[in-house]
Automatic annotation (TrEMBL):
Record-linked SUPFAM superfamilies: TTHA0068-like
Top-rank lineage group of the source organism: Bacteria
Chain segments carrying region Disordered: 26-70, 175-214
Protein name listed in UniProt: DUF309 domain-containing protein
InterPro entries assigned to the protein according to its UniProt record, in alphabetical order: DUF309, TTHA0068_sf
UniProt xrefs under Pfam families: DUF309 (PF03745)
Annotated Basic and acidic residues bias: 30-57, 201-214
Amino acid sequence: MCLRPGVSPVAAAHAEHYPTLRGVHARVTAGREDEGVNTRDRDGEGRARSARPRDGLGRPLPYGAGGVERQPEGVVRTPAETVAEAQRLLDAGMPFHAHEVFEDAWKSGPEEAAPLWRGLAQLAVGLTHAARGNDVGGARLLRRGAAGIDGLDGGPYGVDVPGLVRWAVALAGRVEPAGNGTAPSGPGRRGDGRGTAPVDAAREAPRLAPDRAR
């Protein structure tokens, strides 16, 4: 990995593993025009963070619009707390917010656990894309996340890795556009080569813990 001056290893790793998501779910520090003055949004601790509201799938809304509360950044949780909070958000149809929980675990946890949390974050973003109607990006991220966690031992973290791999591969096959050589046309497809309609994020939410695996 080649680092540019001033770019942290975590930020570089994030860009490397989320190449299709630049400008979509990355932390945006865009300036805002206010009476001709370019000001930068910051959170309560002074860190640059866009204050634009977002909907339940993480899509930016206009300033002043009602939105869904963002996840706080940099929260340190135990593995059990991470899984429980992410599952709550997934069940509520908010996989974008669940990915932020996994991202916190990836950045704050031990190095040996990073591949698991990173892969789970990719799965959550894949579901986010599928729910937004971006079936190409959704299928790609679901498969990438599945490949990233396949073979890892999720037991110590309360994660059903084999079940999640099966879920991700199956969902990717259903949402991928026809004509890509892996997903034939069938019931529920648009029939125009663009894959399926946006999925219901809550209905398609995976079970993270082994005792809840589908």
